[in-house]
TrEMBL record:
3-octaprenyl-4-hydroxybenzoate carboxy-lyase-like C-terminal domain span: 322-445
One Gene Ontology MF term: carboxy-lyase activity
Gene Ontology CC: cytoplasm
Domain of life: Archaea
Origin organism lineage: Archaea, Methanobacteriati, Methanobacteriota, Thermococci, Thermococcales
Protein name per the record: Menaquinone biosynthesis decarboxylase
Family: Belongs to the UbiD family.
Matches recorded under Gene3D superfamilies: UbiD C-terminal domain-like
Residue intervals of the 3-octaprenyl-4-hydroxybenzoate carboxy-lyase-like N-terminal domain: 8-84
Organism in which the protein naturally occurs: Thermococcus profundus
InterPro entries given in the database record: UbiD, UbiD-like_C, UbiD-like_N, UbiD_Rift_dom
Length: 481
């Protein structure tokens, strides 16, 4: 889909878009409305009249559900997206004919490459005087510190010219300054540190607002560094992303509704928060003595009749639950590449994604469950997961009752439970006393092998197949099976 507008029209045709004609404020009113709509799974929303911002309309709840997302991205399984980049490496050439087939594959891959274009609709209008005052940013909860961009596409490249497009909340300070909340383990924070080491001075940054749904999804995806996120956008969209290079050198999606161009002065830090977060509590970075960099907005560019997009978080399951499920599916193929024993994974939506993960594996050797626990705690953003449960492949990780049965039947806590004290954890975790340090819990609920049972043999019940065969007719008659 070309841009956010085309996606909105597509949703409307499917009956998944609510148009709200009453004038509402982006401060508390629109966020509260969006939360209620999301809890009742009623679809996406387009607010036609925005109090205080007559130039704008506002879109919300664009991630209405996983099935809608699959249709929008034109895939039957979201895993197909994660499989696209991996196909490049599958069975690379050994002989001449293989070489030819991989050339064909490279050609196919070129469809996913980004392309820099000379024109972008958003360059039509520019404001240089207090550009941030023009943006209809949300205040999402009563005790939030102020107005926030809650789904900004923060675009930057690091000194090695690896490009990123990432969603980090942005707290507005005044018409020209804002605070970028990139957490320490994210690409933005790393690029900023690399700038400090290499150049000092200014780091060019741009914030795009509103794009096609595939690009919006890319920006929240934990794409492993140094894979270029602007390239990864092509894999998600099924087609290379068109990019526009701003005067400050930053590449942004050409289909954006608006773009704020500016820079981060690498030495300038500011307090951030409180902000009502996705656990359903106020995140207060100042209590952890965390400071974040200041973004200086130099100008905002925007399309005619611009449409703003912001997300609202709070107690699950809101829009980020759909996003989290999509990411779980898209990154499963990559997880399997690193850990081939992984069969499936479930980050349950009420577990707020970094809270709990359940992983099923093809178990081959004693201690295999613990190996997987440790590997996940060492892998990208999965490393932040607080509780991980590993089960054998016959247990469906998406069926919580099966998981509970596996824990009850295969876990001896002394043998199978790992607690890692003082590990790096999600700073938003409302349970830990000293964030970002917190403990981790790993439960190896895999079926145990004889070596793990000290010789004890337990026999699992099984029906007699001949008896089942004799009863087939009765099953049909009484149970309709
Ligand atoms: C609505 C929403 C808001 C988010 N806000 C933040 C944030 O303020 N800071 C942050 O570091 N990550 C935030 N994230 C998570 C990042 O977008 C996610 O970790 C992404 O992978 C980061 O991109 P990166 O891997 O390019 O650094 C948010 C995600 C969503 C869905």
């Amino acid at each position: 889909m070309k841009d956010m507008r085309e996606y909105l029209s597509w949703l409307e045709k499917r009956g998944e878009l609510i148009r709200v004609e009453e004038e509402l404020s982006p401060e508390l009113e629109i966020p509260a409305f969006l939360r209620r709509v999301m809890y009742s799974k009623a679809g996406a929303v387009l607010f036609e009249r925005v109090k205080g911002y007559p130039e704008w309309r506002i879109a919300g709840n664009l991630f209405t559900g996983v099935e809608t997302l699959k249709d929008a991205l034109g895939v039957e399984r979201l895993e197909e997206i994660g499989e696209r980049p991996l196909k490049l490496f599958e069975g690379l050439p050994l002989g001449f004919s293989d070489k030819l087939s991989s050339l064909g594959r490279l050609k196919e891959m070129s469809a996913y490459l980004p392309k820099v274009v000379r024109k972008a609709e958003f360059t039509k209008n520019v404001i240089e005087d207090n550009p941030l005052d023009f943006i209809p940013a949300f205040k999402t909860w009563p005790r939030d510190a102020g107005r926030y961009l809650t789904y900004p596409l923060v675009c930057f490249s690091d000194p090695k010219e690896v490009n990123s497009i990432s969603v980090y909340r942005v707290m507005l300070l005044d018409g020209e300054r804002a605070v970028l909340h990139w957490q320490i383990h994210k690409r933005g924070s790393q690029a900023w540190r690399d700038y400090i080491e290499k150049n000092g001075g200014k780091m060019p940054v741009a914030i795009a607002i509103g794009s096609d749904i595939g690009t919006l999804l890319t920006a929240v995806s934990p794409v492993p560094y140094p894979l270029d996120k602007l390239l990864f956008a092509g894999f998600v969209r099924g087609k290379g992303l068109e990019l526009y290079r701003l005067p400050n050198g930053v590449l942004v999606p050409a289909n954006a509704e608006a773009v704020i161009e500016g820079y981060v002065d690498v030495k300038e830090l500011h307090e951030e928060g409180p902000f009502g977060d996705h656990f359903g509590f106020y995140d207060k970075p100042a209590e952890r003595n965390e400071l974040y960099p200041v973004f200086h907005a130099e100008r905002v560019y925007y399309r005619d009749d611009p449409i703003y997009y912001g997300s609202v978080v709070g107690k699950p399951p809101l829009e980020d639950a759909v996003i989290g499920k999509a990411i779980e599916r898209i990154f499963l193929p990559m997880m399997k590449m690193i850990l081939p024993e992984v069969v499936d994974v479930n980050f349950p939506e009420y577990g707020v994604f970094q809270g709990i993960a359940i992983v099923s594996i093809k178990k081959r050797y004693p201690g295999h469950g613990k190996k997987v626990l440790n590997a996940l705690w060492g892998t990208g953003q999965a490393a932040l997961t607080k509780v991980i449960v590993v089960v054998s492949e016959d247990i469906n990780p998406h069926d919580i009752n099966q998981v509970i049965w596996a824990i009850a039947s295969f876990v001896d806590p002394q043998r199978d439970v790992l607690v890692i004290p003082n590990a790096h954890t999600d700073a938003l975790d409302p349970a830990v006393p000293n964030p970002p340090l917190g403990s981790k819990l790993g439960i190896d609920a895999t079926r145990k092998l004889p070596e793990e049972m000290n010789g004890r043999v337990v026999e699992e019940v099984e029906e007699d197949p001949q008896v089942l065969k004799r009863l087939e007719g009765l099953f049909k008659k009484y149970l309709g099976e």
